Amino acid sequence: MTILIVCTGNTCRSPMAEAILRRKLQRNGLHDMNVLSAGVATEHGFPAHPLAIGTCLAHGLKLNSHRTRQASATVVQSADIILGMTESHVNLLTHAYPDKAAAIHLLKEYGRGELLEDREVADPIGADPFQYERCFKELDKELERIAQILKVKFAKEKKC
After folding, report:
1. Which range marks the domain in which residue 36 is found?
2. 28: Cβ–Cβ under 8 A, 6 or more apart, which residues?
3. Is this model's pTM higher than 0.70 or not?
4. How many domains does the structure of the chain reveal?
5. Which of 23, 112, 123, 145 is labelled catalytic?
6. Which of 69, 89, 131, 149 could form a disulfide with 111 if both were Cys (CB 3.0 to 4.6 A apart)?
7. If you compute the radius of gyration of the chain from its CA atoms, what whole number of angstroms results?
8. Per residue in 134-155, pLDDT tens?
9. For this structure, is 80 an active site residue?
10. What is the pLDDT of residues 114-133, one digit of tens each?
């Protein structure tokens, strides 16, 4: 199973989320899941933002080798679950890849039965280190919830 996490530039939110989710899945024994990140408005090959790198490092995660990736047809089509940070990311991907619409979700609403008032993960680009830390904590909380959903789902699929 491949999970694709998407933001705008693939330098802040989605690489942090990729690193967080990868660690959470490993800790939950979900070693067969692949986690990728991409941007809807980026070019290939740029490093993560220095504040994203620093924030992750403070939490024991490394983004030093991260390089931006476009949310290209190949990347999107290879994903089983696609998590966007904002409604605009979800709408853009759903419009560009209507055959993948069932796989595309807002990250904060994945697996929830209700709509949230605060549905998006704000972009910290251009903000201070405090905002990167706030973004990291928000992602960490949401991705813990998602990791638990995937753990239950994966356990059920293995029993079948």
Report:
1. 2-112+121-159
2. 147, 148, 150, 151
3. yes
4. 1
5. 123
6. 149
7. 15
8. 999 999 999 999 999 999 987 7
9. no
10. 778 899 999 999 999 999 99
